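Input record (Table S2, row 249):
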Amino acid sequence: MGDIVRLIDVHKTYGRGDSRVQVLDGVDVDFEVGTFTAIMGPSGSGKSTLLQCAAGLDRVDAGQVLLDGAPLHELSERALTELRREHMGFVFQSFNLIPALTARRNVELPMQLAGRSIDPVVIDRGLAEVGLTERGGHRPAELSGGQQQRVAIARALVTRPKVIFADEPTGALDSRTAREVLALLRGVVEEHGQTVIMVTHDPVAASYSQRVVFLADGRVTGELFEPTAGTVALRMAELEPGRSGTNPC
Ligand SMILES: Nc1ncnc2c1ncn2[C@@H]1O[C@H](COP(=O)(O)OP(=O)(O)O)[C@@H](O)[C@H]1O
Ligand SMILES: [Mg+2]
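Output record (magnesium ion complex):
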């Protein structure tokens, strides 16, 4: 099927001089079209940075980032913005909805920003897909956390982007609501052949993916296919020895 997102020998540092931090230190990773991948690793291992670089939200210092063959590292800010609007969707831990807008208007926003005409049928379908047909007229403050995240997912999906980037999308949700959101993300891959790349530190969340890529100290240290919560937790314990729970100290 081919790779939709490729990172080739990506390096990224933040800060200067003494406060310089090497966050990505030669990352090579590919994401195949129509797959659901989880990125896991200890806190501070560079997961969010990897996602931001893969989405062209942040610039790499060295290496290449390809989206469907397009070299993001060579594009102007303007071209990047356009590419993101056309081909990428974003879901964050904190939902990032516009408080003053209704759920429906929030879902319409990406199309409006892309200068596309807003087809009410498409918006209806988007709201229905996440089970929020009855909630289109509500503002974010009038919705539960799970409902807000479902609005954010509908917003991410409405342009039918090639890739959906999600950073800890279930981090602020209770476990039942989290499972609903994860099932939605998996459905996007299974039913529409879109690609989902999700950062998480939760082995249960990762078990909804088809493949887990492990990151430690800014490097890819391994991967796991057909993960279960158990196999993921074991691997994470190896990456975070101090926090495995088996350490008598
Ligand atoms: N904008 C930034 N400026 C300076 N340091 C940053 C910035 N973003 C992240 N970092 C640092 O980079 C490292 C990796 O961060 P991040 O990618 O957020 O890790 P993770 O998502 O795995 O917890 C951390 O040490 C963090 O403090
Ligand atoms: Mg992070």
